[in-house]
Design brief:
Length: 487
């Protein structure tokens, strides 16, 4: 590290990434030297017609075509490799493409299909992109730190093993921010990842590499992580579906990051997709493998996709409560307008009932979660940055140095804030139960609100280095509620 300096290590990382893009065959087309702000139409102009068609197909339709032999795995993987290479040139979202491994895997799957006349599993041939800090055996695992460039994955992450067994193809690894604690995506190894719909704006973070890649349809299903909004922010900024599952739902063994083992605010892994069915496909595939048998912290609950709130009981309405504002930062007019449009359409559905959700002390929620994010006073983040001498990125400074709640907590202080967390969760649960329309035979609340419809942020995608309000996403991390963003 010392002989190169952090800038030298960054050049090595970028050269390594660029070389992986150059190894894609047929070669990735060059992009114009002067780019417009909105680059989403460029891949359609530079790729072959069949590649455009493949890469703009929803994942559930791709697996169907692959399962009946309508498409070959090699054709699908090649198309996504080329479009992912273009996405890198347009938004700087890739840490590494995997052309040799991906095509070798695709050939194996095609040969299997030819021999057995059936797919190998439910994800047969489906390309899946992966956020870099989710480990792959023998591959880099830097988690956004220059000083961790030499770290390698000891094994494939547990979730990746499950998806591989189901037949998928890993072909692209994507960018994340320094510390993994930005609602944007910039680090000193690769620079800034930008939004494909407006390159002056952020794609969100910390899974912003996935957001930009999927936004450009260089992927149809990707894997991110979320501790304060890191799946939902990119999904919202890039027009995608993104799910933050409840903690201990998806196995997380094999990923990298600071503060491994902390349990105050638990990070989760989850999908981003170009379709809602893609999110369901990911969840059903992973949970069908019963990950709790290998990773015992996972809760042993299957994916219940057979249940529909609209058909469980014919006389029961789906109750949706709308959070128009968290009472701290008022959403910008475009956000309120979008919420209003959705609510107007929902009111026309007889099986749905709309009400307003009043925020319950969301300012207190931020105080609690911000106090628990860095219980060691951010010592591990500071050490990881200091290892290489790399500079602090603006949003790393914001969430650590400018955050008044960051301090080294004693054991007693950790107990105090964890108790505050549980008390707040209980109080919020009481608010939810207060929406009940009746009680059951054991006094349990019945007819409560089913879902809260809320903004994913106070505004649309922000200018670079300006995403400084976490409250609309971190609220649900503190409560540990599952949360889905949809375009």
């Amino acid at each position: 590290m010392a002989e190169h300096g952090w800038e030298g290590v960054a050049k090595i990382a970028q050269d390594f990434r660029d070389a992986s893009v150059r190894r894609v065959e047929p070669s990735v087309p060059d992009v114009p030297s002067e780019l417009p702000n909105d680059v989403t139409d460029i891949p359609r102009r530079l790729l072959a017609e069949n590649e455009v068609l493949i890469t703009q197909t929803a994942p559930e339709n791709l697996v169907e075509s692959l399962a009946i032999g309508k498409l070959t795995c090699i054709a699908v993987v090649t198309a996504f490799l080329r479009r992912a290479g273009l996405a890198q040139k347009l938004t700087n979202c890739i840490t590494e493409l995997l052309p040799e491994e991906a095509l070798r895997r695709a050939k194996y799957l095609d040969d299997y299909y030819h021999e057995h006349n059936r797919p190998i599993g439910p994800l047969h041939g489906l390309p899946i992109s992966v956020k870099e800090h989710i480990g792959m055996k023998g591959k880099g695992l830097n988690a956004g730190f220059v000083g961790w460039w030499h770290h390698k994955g000891e094994d494939d992450a547990h979730a990746l093993k499950i998806l591989w067994q189901a037949g998928c193809v890993f072909y692209a690894r994507t960018t994340q921010p320094q510390t993994l604690m930005h609602l944007e995506t910039s680090n000193n190894l690769y620079g800034v990842t930008v939004n494909p719909f407006n390159r002056d704006l952020t794609p969100g973070g910390s899974s912003g590499g996935e957001g930009a890649l999927l936004g450009l349809r260089g992927s149809c299903l990707g894997i991110g992580s979320d501790i304060g909004g890191s799946i939902r922010s990119p999904a919202a900024n890039c027009g995608l579906y993104g799910l933050r599952p409840t903690s201990y739902r998806i196995p997380v063994g094999g990923w990298s990051g600071t503060m491994q083992g902390e349990e105050h605010i638990v990070a989760v892994m989850g999908p981003l997709s170009t379709s809602l069915e893609g999110v369901k496909l990911f969840m059903k595939t992973v949970l069908s493998a019963k990950p709790w048998l290998i990773e015992p912290s996972c809760v042993p609950i299957p994916w219940r996709d057979q249940d529909s709130q609209l058909t469980v009981a014919q006389n029961k309405k789906l109750r949706i409560a709308v959070l128009w504002s968290d009472g701290i930062v008022k959403p910008h007019p475009p956000i309120t307008r979008a919420l209003t449009e959705v609510v107007t359409k929902l009111r026309d559905i007889p099986a749905i009932e709309i009400s307003t959700w009043e925020p319950h002390k969301h300012d207190e929620a931020w105080e609690i979660i911000a106090s628990l994010f860095f219980a060691d006073g951010a010592q591990e983040e500071t050490a990881a940055i200091s290892t290489s001498g790399e500079p602090w990125r603006p949003l790393s400074k914001f969430i650590i140095h400018e955050n008044p709640y960051v301090k080294h907590l004693s054991v007693e202080e950790i107990w105090y804030w964890t108790t505050r967390r549980e008390q707040y969760r209980g109080a919020y649960n009481d608010v939810w139960n207060s929406t009940a329309t009746s009680t059951g035979p054991h006094g349990e609340p019945e007819g409560t609100v089913d879902v809260i419809l809320a903004p994913a942020g106070p505004g649309a995608a922000a200018p670079l280095d300006q995403s400084r309000y976490w409250g609309y996403t971190s609220q649900w991390n503190l409560l540990d509620y599952p949360a889905l963003v949809f375009p």
